[in-house]
Design goal:
The protein is built from eleven helices and 14 strands. The protein is α/β, with parallel strands linked by helices and about 300 residues long. The model has no long low-confidence stretch (mean pLDDT about 95).
Length: about 300
């Protein structure tokens, strides 16, 4: 990393999340009683907010439409301390949206995402115009909503300015976009299905998750973290590996927990913690998020992270 590096750069989706949680078992073909909430979301935006709430200087490079959803996202992000001055407001596109249906336990039953603006607006040309953001970054996080051409530009600029890159594979269909760049990643945080899409290992539990994490390391990733939901996670580097159990908590809403885990782990790495401690901070951030109705826990802080943490 260069000496003048100052901020953390998060690149990718910023959306408005609509989440409906059923109050009784869901039956297909009919309406189910429950509660519906709307909050700001998007993987890159979620990671940015988590890190900003933990006191990091964060710049978000994303795009929103010139509409009420976009204005709501920008206002909320600015209030949490994120630098949104480089977020593109594009009147030709609608703001990204995510719709999730949760069962009575808070587990996602199905979801739909509308993230076309990320691919259409975050072009290689736009990224290159913002190359100074790469030059001055301590670290970069990205989600796989970026187009293949945009990803090539991100990694080219990161390589030029020697900035470490962390990636969230986002979905099983988008994860393969990251395959050409595995040797250039400091950190990747797939769930079980995304890990299989990346390295071909069918993850069924802790043992196979550890196998997948180790394989990703042999494919060039420096730190691979496979998230296992209620089971915890498996992680590997070239020098160590292990399984870490999840922190037991009451689940209110699972949306955003994976992004919180990514952000918590990144926070640990930014602050030079050993990898095993960094992933535990990630699990603590995920546990806090699981207990919140919001996509990012509104009271997230370093103090709360350590209060939640079980070593």
């Amino acid at each position: 990393m260069v000496e003048h590096a100052s901020h953390f750069l998060s690149i990718g989706a910023a959306s408005l999340d609509t989440k409906g949680r059923a109050s009784q078992p869901i039956q297909a073909g009919t309406s189910t009683p429950g509660a519906i909430r709307i909050s700001a979301g998007g993987v890159a935006r979620n990671i940015a907010e988590n890190l900003a709430r933990l006191g990091e200087q964060v710049v978000l490079l994303s795009a929103v439409g010139d509409d009420s959803s976009g204005r709501r996202i920008l206002s909320q992000a600015a209030e949490t301390g994120i630098d949104v001055s480089h977020v593109v407001v594009d009147a030709r596109h609608r703001t990204a949206a995510y719709l999730a249906v949760l069962d009575e336990t808070g587990t996602m039953a199905t979801s739909i995402d509308d993230m076309a603006i990320s691919q259409d607006v975050l072009t290689p040309q736009l990224l290159f115009r913002h190359r100074n953001l790469f030059r001055d970054a301590r670290m970069i996080a990205l989600d796989a909503n970026l187009s293949p051409a945009a990803l090539r530009t991100v990694f080219s600029l990161a390589r030029k300015y020697r900035v470490p890159v962390c990636a969230d594979p986002t979905t099983t269909t988008l994860a393969p976009r990251l395959c050409p760049y595995l040797p250039e990643l400091l950190l990747i945080t797939p769930n079980s299905a995304e890990a299989e899409a990346l390295c071909g290992v069918h993850v069924q539990g802790r043992r196979t998750a550890l196998t997948a994490a180790k394989k990703l390391v042999t494919m060039g990733v420096r730190i691979a973290v496979i998230t296992l939901g209620a089971t915890g996670l498996a992680y590997a580097t070239s020098q160590e590996s292990g399984n870490v159990p999840a922190i037991e908590c009451d689940i209110v809403d699972m949306t955003g927990a994976g992004d919180a885990l990514t952000a918590g782990t990144i926070f640990g790495l930014l602050n030079d913690l050993p990898v095993d401690q960094a992933v535990r901070l990630g699990l603590s951030a995920a546990a806090l998020t699981l207990q919140s109705r919001e996509t990012v826990h509104p009271d997230l802080s370093l103090e709360h992270l350590y209060d939640q943490l079980q070593i």
